[in-house]
């Protein structure tokens, strides 16, 4: 059994090596970030959803964010036909959202005020100040269509074990260190395509 597991692991590593994936260094974090990140529950990272630099497969202009809800990946397009791929949690079928929007606002350790629809589904949810227990995590990118808030966000999470699943209420969740990395790269008014 051990030999079989080792063979599968070697096959996976070999397959990844041929895909031109390159890991992306961790972003620098502030003292507050480091302190609060240490308080978020840890989850074993699935290498399929790790942060990788790779050849651009989107064809979009640099600075664009593309979310593939079926594959559970977010792509940030870089110059020189490269992109960074991040693993994400997406909305389950009942709450999924697709469309084109823009990043109208960015926030560090944002406060959370659940929308009315969420409060109706889960009466126990209530507004929370930013911090390690907050479901929005370390950073949030607020998505607007024109000047209208979609109420959808790209944000961190206090449930990193759910990366790669379709269990959110429509928002795109990322590991906190990944959303910090993306936040540092993304400009206001960046185009966001959710497929």
In CATH terms, what is the architecture? Answer: Beta Barrel
Number of helices: 4
The strand order across the widest sheet is 3-4-5-10-8-7-6-11
The CATH H-level superfamily is L,D-transpeptidase catalytic domain-like
Mean pLDDT over all positions? 89
How many beta-strand elements? Answer: 11
What features would you highlight for this structure?
195 residues; alpha+beta; L,D-transpeptidase catalytic domain-like; eight-stranded mixed beta barrel; 4 helices; disordered N terminus; cell wall biogenesis/degradation; LD_TPept_cat_dom
Chart the SSEs and their pairings.
Blueprint: H1 2-17, E1 22-23, H2 31-37, E2 52-55, E3 65-68, E4 73-78, E5 82-91, E6 99-108, H3 116-121, E7 139-145, E8 148-155, E9 166-168, E10 172-174, H4 176-185, E11 191-194
Parallel strand pairs: 3-11, 5-9, 8-10
Antiparallel strand pairs: 1-2, 2-5, 3-4, 4-5, 5-10, 6-7, 6-11, 7-8
Protein name: L,D-transpeptidase
Organism: Microvirga aerophila
Family: Belongs to the YkuD family.
């Amino acid at each position: 059994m051990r030999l079989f597991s080792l063979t599968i692991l070697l096959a996976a590593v070999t397959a990844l090596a041929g895909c031109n994936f390159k890991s992306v260094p961790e972003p620098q974090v502030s003292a507050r970030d480091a302190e609060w990140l240490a308080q978020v529950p840890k989850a074993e990272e699935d290498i399929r959803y790790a942060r990788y630099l790779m050849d651009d497969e989107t064809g979009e202009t640099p600075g664009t964010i593309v979310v593939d809800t079926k594959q559970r990946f977010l792509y940030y397009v870089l110059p020189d036909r490269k992109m960074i791929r991040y693993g994400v949690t997406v909305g389950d079928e009942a709450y999924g959202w697709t469309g084109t929007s823009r990043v109208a606002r960015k926030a560090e350790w944002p406060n959370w005020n659940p929308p009315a629809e969420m409060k109706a589904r889960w009466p126990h949810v209530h507004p929370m100040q930013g911090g390690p227990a907050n479901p929005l995590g370390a950073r949030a990118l607020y998505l607007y269509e024109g000047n209208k808030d979609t109420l959808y966000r790209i944000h961190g999470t206090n449930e990193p074990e759910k990366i790669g699943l379709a269990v959110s209420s429509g928002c795109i969740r990322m590991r906190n260190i990944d959303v910090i990395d993306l936040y540092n790269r993304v400009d206001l008014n960046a185009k966001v395509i959710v497929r």
